[in-house]
């Protein structure tokens, strides 16, 4: 309908194989993207929906922000409410929550690689490439052999939720005081079997090697050796494609990364000069180009506002622009691995920054590491111990819950007054990554990453643009919420 | 039979749940039933202009449409413009696309409680003015209006649930593919009766605690969650505890209350989700089809008769007193 509104401008949408709805507007000049504007076209207003409710109701409402980050949303809320109550769950409660969060993240990484990202290389546009035949057989959308295998492996892994959480998505098992489902010795061996089966899938299909061999990759040389002579698997195939298409120079953004940390990685930031602490007090949201009122100042989330301005024409998205210390930051698996000090992530970023290549390698590296950790955590569950402690909530107070969804840093900030939620602000990973310009005119990470991307003659939805967009594994329903 | 799937104002969780279909897996299930994906936002290759071309072909009759699945509620705001959800790349509100495409579809399926009734997106102040395809909460109407009937003769089919069980959706689609779903197979909220004629209470492993009113008082307790913890399993229309989720799960098996997510307006229960509202100590919501006087009489009798084993296990997070093993009678 409006792919070529006027010469030099492309409006790309509906952008699928991302979670939710996305539109990207590209100004093109000389076969390259000159500038990009990213539009999150769906506003539901969860922050407003939460106002006035009993604080524990957040555990019902927030998972339903997102069907792919559901446990992550639960975890952020439960963490914030535990903070409000001043309670620490027993070790089993923390381990169980970490296991569920890890399973969701692993499932999301799997879904992203097989269902969202790789099918673009099975497009007819690549029919002439040497790797096309094998990619088409494995990764043709909704039909390839690897796509089917990944769906089945994910289903098998998510049986973990049938045992631990009743169901996925939208479990209520995660509570401020721990988990609502105690596990027994039988559950424990069953969980171990599920994780072991998932490991076998990863080792035979995705990597063709033990997960430890992936986790131990520590340099670009090692990665190149894997590409040139490593075991056959989807990982090596991706390395080959990446070298052929130069994905290591595609989609470079600001090279500033942040992670709120999880059970595997610490909280921190990276902006070129090593890993530094993250100050959550320095986070603020800018509304200059969001269709939101209250543009005159940037808001810390404890002082945030969500008043949609449906008549606004200056704003081009419902997404606010979060900034840390005034600057846009990228978040996700690569950021976690980098800030966690993994040598391969450090080498990737040192060599080329955040790119399509390094983001996807970061995710596949993390997938292997998550699966190893899950096996260890299951063994650490103490079936004789406690799973839950009471967590009475005060009638007044403010608290924050920071966690990591598959696609990056997720934060909840809530204030309770008179025993009711007075304010609830959420900044999701893709709010960071797909944020619009701010009051200084500084584009968000995806907008920056798209600058310079090639647009071939006649392309309505440039395939390189699709690679860049999907390399972030965006979740649009979380973005605006 | 072909199918077009659109995601409107929801979380995408019904699709994410559907990907967990088992025995057979989702792709095999659809293929086996001869269901061709015209387009699905998560699964399909086509993006942007290719998709818009397809939608336009349906609207001008060049492409037939057998089933339109809509996931997520319809956002009518602000002020009835639908601008809270413009379909990307088209400059047009999603609600307009859905209304027009529904007019061309042989069947219209609302996947999930959002698409059916408005759901969580319509909670609280309902900032986006969300509604369902043919309901606005309990009120018939919604986007398509109370009199809407698709070309195939059925109203919108409401596969309600938050999220939907994968097989509620796949079985509805398979029934449609085999012309096996009639108006009489839908309940009064237009939900397929094959799952909506059951109660979540059926097959709940806490049934013995329910029988004796041996109640849980806090998360992780094994007891019945109806009396104190907000559980609506005795009123909720769904087969969650006989069908099971992700292999062997359900909400009550996961340690938490059923919140009746297949029902319209479950998003506004009128009380905190995890607390049971009571009047004079008696839960206000009674088990389905049970007269109040009998409930009160049976409850007090049951409480008096509660075995020590059941009472003690109800307040623990694991079995602390096993059932007695009866020795075989000696001959």
UniProtKB/TrEMBL annotation, chain B:
Binding locations of [3Fe-4S] cluster: 240, 258, 261
Binding site for [4Fe-4S] cluster 2: 201, 204, 224, 231
Enzyme class: oxidoreductase
Domain of life according to the entry: Bacteria
Record GO biological process: anaerobic respiration
UniProt catalytic activity: H2 + A = AH2
UniProt subunit comment: Heterodimer of a large and a small subunit.
Name under which the protein is recorded: hydrogenase (acceptor)
Organism in which the protein naturally occurs: Zavarzinia aquatilis
Higher taxonomy: Bacteria, Pseudomonadati, Pseudomonadota, Alphaproteobacteria, Rhodospirillales
């Amino acid at each position: 309908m409006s792919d070529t509104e006027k010469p030099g401008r492309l409006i790309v949408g509906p952008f699928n194989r991302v979670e939710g709805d996305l539109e990207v507007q590209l100004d093109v000049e000389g076969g390259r993207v000159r500038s990009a504007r990213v539009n999150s076209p769906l506003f539901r207003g969860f922050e407003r929906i939460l106002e006035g409710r009993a604080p524990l109701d957040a555990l019902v409402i927030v998972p339903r922000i997102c069907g792919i980050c559901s446990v992550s949303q639960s975890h952020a809320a439960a963490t914030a409410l535990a903070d409000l109550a001043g309670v620490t769950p027993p070790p089993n409660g923390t381990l169980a929550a970490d296991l569920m969060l890890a399973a969701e993240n692993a499932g999301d990484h799997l879904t992203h690689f097989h269902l969202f990202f790789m099918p673009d290389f099975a497009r007819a546009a690549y029919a002439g490439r040497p790797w096309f035949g094998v990619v088409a057989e494995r990764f043709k959308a909704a039909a390839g052999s690897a796509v089917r295998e990944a769906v089945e492996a994910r289903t098998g892994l998510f049986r973990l939720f049938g045992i631990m959480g009743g169901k996925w998505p939208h479990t209520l098992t995660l509570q401020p005081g721990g988990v609502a489902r105690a596990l027994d010795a039988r559950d424990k061996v069953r969980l171990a079997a599920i994780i072991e089966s998932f490991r076998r899938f990863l080792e035979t299909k995705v990597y063709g090697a033990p997960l430890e061999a992936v986790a131990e990759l520590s340099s670009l040389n090692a990665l190149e050796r894997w590409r040139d002579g490593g075991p056959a698997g989807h990982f090596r195939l991706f390395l080959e494609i990446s070298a052929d298409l130069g994905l290591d120079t595609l989609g470079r953004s600001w090279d500033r990364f942040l992670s709120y940390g999880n059970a595997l990685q610490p909280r921190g930031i990276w902006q070129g000069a090593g890993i530094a602490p993250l100050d959550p007090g320095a986070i603020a949201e800018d509304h200059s180009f969001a269709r939101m009122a209250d543009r005159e100042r940037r808001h810390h989330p404890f002082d945030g506002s969500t008043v949609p301005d449906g008549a606004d024409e200056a704003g081009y998205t419902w997404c606010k622009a979060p900034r840390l210390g005034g600057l846009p930051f990228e978040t996700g698996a690569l950021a976690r691995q980098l800030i966690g000090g993994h040598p391969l992530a450090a080498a990737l970023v040192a060599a080329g920054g955040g790119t399509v290549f390094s983001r996807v390698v970061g995710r596949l590296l993390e997938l292997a590491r998550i699966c190893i950790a899950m096996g260890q955590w299951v063994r650490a569950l103490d079936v004789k111990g406690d799973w839950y402690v009471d967590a009475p909530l005060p009638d007044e107070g403010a608290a924050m819950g920071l966690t990591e969804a598959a696609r990056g840093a997720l934060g909840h900030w809530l204030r309770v007054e008179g025993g009711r939620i007075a304010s609830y602000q959420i900044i999701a990973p893709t709010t960071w990554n797909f944020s619009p310009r701010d009051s200084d005119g500084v584009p968000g990470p995806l907008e920056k990453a798209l600058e310079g991307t090639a647009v071939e003659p006649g392309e309505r939805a440039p395939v390189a643009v699709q690679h860049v967009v999907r390399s972030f594994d965006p979740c649009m329903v979380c973005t605006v919420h | 039979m072909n199918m077009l799937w659109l995601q409107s104002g929801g979380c995408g969780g019904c699709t994410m749940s559907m990907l967990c279909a088992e025995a057979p897996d989702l792709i095999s299930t659809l293929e086996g039933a001869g269901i061709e994906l015209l387009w699905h936002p998560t699964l399909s290759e086509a993006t942007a202009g290719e998709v818009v071309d397809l939608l336009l072909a349906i609207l001008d009759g060049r492409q037939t449409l057998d089933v339109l699945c809509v996931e997520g509620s319809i956002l009518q705001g602000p002020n009835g413009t639908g601008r809270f959800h413009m379909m990307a790349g088209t400059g047009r509100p999603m609600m307009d696309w859905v209304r027009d495409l529904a007019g061309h579809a042989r069947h219209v399926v609302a996947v999930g409680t959002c698409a059916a009734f408005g759901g969580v997106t319509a909670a609280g102040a309902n900032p986006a003015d969300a509604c369902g395809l043919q309901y606005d909460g309990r009120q018939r109407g919604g986007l398509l209006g109370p009199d809407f009937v698709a070309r195939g003769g059925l109203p919108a089919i409401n596969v309600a649930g938050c999220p939907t069980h994968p097989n509620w959706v796949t079985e509805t689609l398979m029934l449609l593919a085999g012309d096996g779903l009639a108006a009489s197979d839908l309940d009064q909220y237009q939900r397929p009766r094959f799952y909506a004629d059951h109660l979540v209470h059926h097959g709940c492993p806490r049934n013995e605690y329910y029988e004796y009113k041996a109640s849980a008082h806090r998360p992780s307790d094994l007891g019945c969650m109806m009396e104190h913890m907000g559980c609506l399993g005795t009123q909720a229309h769904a087969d969650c505890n006989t069908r099971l989720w992700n292999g062997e799960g359900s909400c009550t098996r996961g340690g938490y209350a059923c919140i009746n997510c297949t029902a319209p307006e479950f998003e506004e229960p009128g009380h905190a989700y995890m607390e049971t509202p009571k009047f004079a100590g008696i839960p206000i919501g009674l088990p389905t089809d049970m007269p109040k006087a009998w409930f009160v009489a049976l409850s007090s009798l049951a409480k008096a008769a509660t075995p020590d084993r059941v009472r003690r296990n109800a307040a623990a997070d694991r079995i602390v007193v096993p059932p007695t093993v009866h020795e075989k009678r000696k001959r």
